[in-house]
Amino acid sequence: MNRRLRISGILILVGLGAELLSFAWPRPAAFIVFLVVSGTFLLAGMVLFLFSIAAGPAASTTPHGEEQNL
Amino acid sequence: MQMSPSGFNGTSIVSLLIIVNLAFVVFLVARPGMKATLGGKVLAFLALFFLPLLAGYGGVYTHLEHSKQTEFCLSCHVMQDYGRSLHIDDPAHIPAVHFQNNLVPRDQACFTCHTDYTLYGGVNAKLRGLKHLYVYYLGTVPEKPVLYSPYQNRECLHCHAGSRSFEENPMHSLDAAAMTALRSGEVSCLVCHDSIHDVEDLGQESFWEPPVVPHLLN
User: Fold this and answer.
1) Is B56 on the interface with A (CB under 8 A)?
2) B161 CB near a chain A CB, below 8 Å?
3) Contact in structure between A19 and B60 (CB atoms under 8 Å)
4) Mutate to test the interface with B, among A2, A19, A41, A70 (most CBs of B within 10 A)
5) Which has the minimum average pLDDT: A44-48, A63-67, B33-37, B176-180?
6) What is the dihedral of CA A23, A28, A32, A35, to 10 degrees?
7) Which sign, positive or negative, has the C-alpha torsion B56, B49, B47, B39?
8) In this predicted model, what pLDDT tens digit does every residue of B83-101 receive, in sequence order?
């Protein structure tokens, strides 16, 4: 689960960064960049986060009997 | 763009939200152990779902507000002559008179006259704007842009109806039939007020430049 959350966080970081950059670019193409780049990364990050909490922790057991979150 | 008295506008607020969101996400990514606690789970929900959703909505709002700016419209090469026509030094040139006398907000001059004053007029204007983007970047830009439909009196009357200069103008009020024809759109305002964005004659025009006026507040 931690891995999924970390990937979700990175996707959202990229999406938010692209959104901030699009604000600083006063051209019509900025809206397209915002929709395509920022929208895709933000949506992917949020969906992955929802999936990770819905799916719950993918637990596996080590040979020593310890539980690990993947 | 709408500015509050404190100088904050929509873009500043959305940018601040994004920066807070970025800080939360960096914190979560850097300290994955946080998510085991209840506070960490709440923070993860805020940082990875709620705030990005809000930031996305804020981004759409901010870009739509940006797209109302005169500067935004004139950033496309094909519109630059239309922007220059707002500075024509001729009191009969309708767009120039509106722009130069602050009859429309200068920073939203294009949008103010070229949106439809109907229930979904703003939405329709934005959809047309998306089509413009498609044509500008992927299609063939026409040499002379033309309106999708003839300019409606409705857009003029949105501001002028009821104003003294319009209602008491003898050309408008000489007979009731003339006024009825104007109000119904049967006769276009542009029949008489026909000096509109004369971009073909820009080379022969003189231009007015707005003076630098110190801000009256403070």
Assistant:
1) yes
2) no
3) no
4) A19
5) A63-67
6) 40
7) positive
8) 999 999 999 999 999 999 9
How far is the C-alpha of B210 from the C-alpha of A4, rounded, in Å?
56
Cross-chain Cβ contact A34/B63 below 8 Å: yes
CA distance B1 to B64: 10
Structure tokens at B42: 């709440």
Say which residue the tokens 């009256």 belong to.
B216
Q: How high is the ipTM of this complex?
A: 0.79
Give me B10's structure tokens.
């929509």
By C-alpha distance, the chain B residue nearest A40 is B56
Angstrom distance (rounded) from CA A55 to CA A42:
20
Rg, Å, chain B Cα set: 24
Specify the pTM: 0.77
Range B107-112, long-range pairs (CB < 8 A, 24+ positions): B107/B1, B107/B69, B107/B70, B107/B71, B108/B68, B108/B69, B108/B70, B109/B70, B110/B70, B110/B73, B110/B74, B110/B79, B110/B82, B111/B67, B111/B68, B111/B69, B111/B70, B111/B73
Residue in chain B closest to A16 (alpha carbons) equals: B18
